Amino acid sequence: MADQDNKRCFGEYQCPKCNRTWMSGNSWPNMGQECTKCHINVLAHKQTPLEKPDGLDKSDLSKHHPQDLCEKCKQLGHYCGQDRR
User: Half-sphere exposure (CA, 13 Å, Cβ side) for 7?
Assistant: First the structure.
């Protein structure tokens, strides 16, 4: 996992239980997101700077971020995207 100095980044996830995969532009180092199927916390297996994940901007700012599944949102008590660092 890339060391992003605790900044929001682009993360790629894969649930170890059901193998469901997803991507998120609201990924944080050492913070997981909950699998919608298994309801277990999953850490990103790959993180890249938000500006250019693998050279492509894959983040869709209009897409809803499920705060109830995000460990960072739960820790902060509000939408983690507010803390754009």
Answer: 12
Amino acid making up residue 15: C
User: Is the pLDDT confidence value at 8 over 60?
Assistant: yes
How far apart, in whole angstroms, are the C-alpha atoms of residue 29 and residue 10? 10
Mean pLDDT of the chain: 83
Rounded to a whole number, what is the largest CA-CA distance in the chain? 32
Q: What is the rounded distance in angstroms from the CA atom of residue 79 to the CA atom of residue 50? A: 17
Assign 3-class secondary structure to the chain.
CCCCCCCCEEEEEECCCCCCEEEEEEECCCCCEECCCCCCEECCCEEEECCCHHHCCCCCCCCCCCHHHEHHHHHHCCCHHHCCC
pLDDT of residue 1: 43
DSSP β-bridge partners for residue 36: none
